[in-house]
Amino acid sequence: MSEDKTDKNQEIIGFACSFCTFKASEMAGSLRMKYPDGVRLVQVPCSSRVDPAFVIKSILEGADGAFVAGCHPGDCHFIKGNYFTRRKIAALKEMFDAFSMKDKLRLFWVSAAEARRFVEKVTGMYNEIKEKKNAGKTN
Amino acid sequence: MKTGIFICHCGHNIKHTVDVKKLSTYFKMFPSVTVSEDYPFVCSEPGQDMIKDSIEKHGLDRVIIASCTPSLHQELFKDLLKKSDLNPFLLRRVGIREHCSWVGDDVDKNTEKAIRLIKAGLYSSSHYVPLEEKRVDVTKSALIIGGGVSGLSAAVFLSKMGMQVYLVEKEAELGGHTRNLKNIWPIGEDGTLIIEEMEKELQGRENVEIFTSTTISSFEGSFGNYEAVLLTRAGEKRIVAGGVIVAIGFSPFDPQIKPELAYGIDKRIITTMDFERSIDALSLPENPRIAILHCVGSRDEQIGKPYCSRVCCINALRVADTVKEKYKDSYVESFYMDVRAHPRGGEEFFEDTQEKGVLFTRSNIAEIIPGSKGVLVRGEDTLFNELFEREFDLVVLSIGMSPPEDNRLISSLLKITLDKDKFFLEAHVKLRPYDTAVKGIFIAGACSGPKDIEESINHGRASATKLYGFLNLGYAFVEPFIAFVDMKRCSGCRMCEKACVAKAIKFDETKRLVHVEEAACMGCGLCNATCPSSAIGLRGYLDNVIDDEISALVEAV
Lengths: 139, 557
Hints:
heterodimer, A: four-stranded parallel beta sheet, B: alpha/beta
C-alpha cells in the first residue's frame, strides 16, 4: 500500500496569479518547455486571493506540495497584493515548520515574461519533493 | 445541472499527446454531464455551431471548453454563449493545450492530467452564478507618453479621427532620437524633416495638447477613465484619458559598459550616433583607415543583452558606405558576427558595400587600445582561427538599442509588465501584439523591442487604431469580478477594510457592517482571503469554487 503511494506521481498544486505567473505558465506551454505533469495550477486573480486555508486544504487532501506564485514585489497589478501574500505565506511557513513540512510550501515570484524561471522553479520543487520522498522510502 | 463538455483536438496539437477520445467517454459517466464531445477545432465555425446546437438541444446551463489557454479566444466563446441566450459567465475554459499537451510527452500521464484539469473545471463551474457585465462610460481621449516617431504618428492618427490627444514628452522638443539622425534609411532623408512634417499635422488642431519637458507623477483609475497627474514646467496638471499609448522609445547602448572598447577615453573611438552627428567635423587623413564594429551591445550574453537590435547592421553598413563615398581610397574594415541587414533592400545594400571595397572580417574583438599613431584593434578572426592586431585612424562602434531609461518607472506607474530584456511586454506576441495586459494601455515603437523608424511608425499607427476601436463607442463593459458582502456573516471586525488597497470597503457605523463600493473594487480578492468569517466573497473566485478545484486536482481518479 505504501509502495503505491510512493510510486504514484507527486502532485503539486500551484496558485498562480493571473497577471504574472499564470501568463508565464501559458508562455512556457507555447514555447513547448517541459515540466512534470504532476504540477497543476489553480488560477487566482492575484496571489493575495490565496487564503492559507487553500494551501492547507491541498496538503490535507493529498498534494505533496503547494506553491503560491505571483508578480515580483513592486510589480503587483493590484498595487501591493503580493506584499500581503508575502507576509501571509511567511506566517504559514512557520506553521508548516512546526509540523516539519516546511518543504511542502513555496512562494516564488515569476513575472509574465519569465517562462523559463517558472519551469525551473516548479521542476526544482517537484524534484526536491520527489527526492525527499524516495529517501524516506529506503530508510 | 446540465453541463456540456467540449474537448478540442486543436488539430494535432492536443490530440497527439492527449487521448481525447478517452476524455470524452470518461466524462460521459458523470451524472451532471449531459454532453461530452471531442472535436477537431472547437473554435472553427462548425465547432461553434456544434456547441450552439448542443446548448439549444439539451438546454445546457454550464459549458466547459477544454482547449487552448483561457486568455485565448475567451471573447469568442463568451459571445457564443451570449448568442445562445446563456450567461457568458457560466462558461469555463480549461487550458489542456498550454498546461497539458504542450508541456509533457507521455500520452498516459497527459491524459490523466487533462482529466484532472477538466474535472476541476467541472466541479468548480457547478458553483458559478450568472453575472452581469457592468457598463461604464469611456472618456474619448488618449494619453500618449513619448513624442518620438511612434508617439507622434499615433497622435496624428488619433487627432485626425477626432479624439482628444494629450502628448507628453520628457524632453524640451518632440522627435526623440529621429530628430538627431541626418540620413535615414533607405531614403537618406534628414530625420528632422519627418518630425517637422508630423508636427505640422498636429499644429493648430484643437483636440491636441502637447506637453514638452513634462513627466508623469501619478497614474490611477481604470479603463475608460484613467487619471494622470502631469508635472509640467508651469506646474501640475490633472488629465483624464480613456486609454494610454506608451511610446517611450529606447536608449542607445552606452559602450562605456564594456571598458575594453575604450569608448569615451579617446575621441577616435566613436559610435554610429556620434558619426551621424559629426561626419563633417571628423579630422581624418587623406586615405583614412576605418574599423567598424558590429553588435556592440547586442547579442552579448555577458552584459545581459542576448537580443539582436535589428538596426545596427544597416547603420554599420551605412557608415562604411558613407566613408567609401567620401574617401575613394580609404581602407574600411567591418568586424562582424553575422550581418543581419534585415529591412527591405538591406541585403542588396550589403552587396553594394562589398563591391565598393569594404572588407568584412568575421571576428570577435578582444580589445581596442588607443595609441599615439592610431587605434589598435585586437581580436580573433573566427573564420581563419587566428589572432590579429591592426591599426586604424577611426573606430566606429555600431551600437544597439537598450530598453528606455524610464522603463521601470513607467511599468510600475502603469502596472504593465517588462519582458526578460526589460522592454515592455505585449499581451500576446501574435494575437495581441500592441496591447499590454492592462485594458486600454497600448505600447508602440522601440519600447517593446528594437525597431527601425519604419516599423516604429507602423507600430504607433497600429496601436492608435486599436485604441481608437476601444474608445470610439464611448462605453465599455467591465468584468464583474468584484467583491460582495454576506451581511448575515459579517461581524464588523473591519479586517477587510484595513486590507483593501483600493479603499473600496466602507464601514457602516450604525449597522456595524461593511459594504463594498463596486466602482472602486479592483477584484484582487485580498479581502476574501483576509475575512475570518468568510463573509466577503469575490465573484467568479468564490471560496467553494477554488476549494472544489483543489479537490478535483488531487483526488484519486
